[in-house]
Design goal:
199 residues, alpha/beta, 24% helix, 34% strand, globular
């Protein structure tokens, strides 16, 4: 925790609440008023505002930390959002992001077996859109996200004057891979975590 943390694309505020519990003074922004309503209902003490990640209504250097957790793959103007994150960061501040790993978003497993082949049928190098259909508790949702190669993110960071300090491809925890469809993810990265510094 530092002076002030921006949760970029905070959704219903789960990560904002986690950050607050760790001592961060958080401001959550999202383009969805419905998601922010849920965030405020869950914890009215966390500041929230409706904002486009590519056009933030904060002064330069307003934050010492920006967190973009699983949001940038859903932002149409990702490079502009990273530029805005860099702008609102103070010197010495950090952008911490987590995205669906670009290898993951480029391909699919052919089956549910642990040794099922992972294939990329289109192009890893070209940006595209993909859908995930999820059914939970009798509710069905379709999520549309953008696939971008890793270089799209790293170039956006570099163009915004940010320096990559750390890049991780965290393994899926063992307890989450007990069923055959999940055990495939022991072979291919599911997520990518990255921390960048504003020098």
């Amino acid at each position: 925790p530092g002076r002030r943390t921006l949760d970029l694309g905070c959704g219903e505020g789960r990560v904002s609440r986690d950050l607050k519990a760790m001592g961060h003074r958080v401001v959550g922004v999202d383009v969805s008023a419905t998601m922010l309503k849920a965030a405020r209902e869950a914890d009215p003490s966390i500041d929230t505002c409706v904002a486009d990640a590519a056009r933030l209504a904060f002064a330069d250097g307003s934050f010492d930390c920006v967190v973009a957790f699983m949001s940038l793959q859903d932002v149409d103007q990702m490079a502009a959002a990273i530029e805005e994150a860099a702008r609102v960061l103070e010197t010495g501040g950090r952008l911490c992001l987590a995205i669906v790993h670009p290898l993951n978003s480029a391909g699919r497993f052919r089956g549910d077996e642990p040794d099922s082949p992972f294939t990329v049928e289109g192009s890893y190098l070209n940006s595209s859109f993909y859908e995930d259909n999820v059914v939970r508790g009798g509710l069905e949702m379709t999520f549309v996200s953008a696939h971008r190669p890793l270089s799209a993110y790293t170039e956006a960071l570099a163009d915004s004057g940010l320096l990559i300090e750390r890049l991780r491809e965290p393994p899926v925890p063992e307890h989450a891979m007990t069923t055959p469809p999940n055990s495939r993810w022991g072979r291919v990265p599911l997520f990518l975590h990255l921390r960048a510094l504003k020098p």
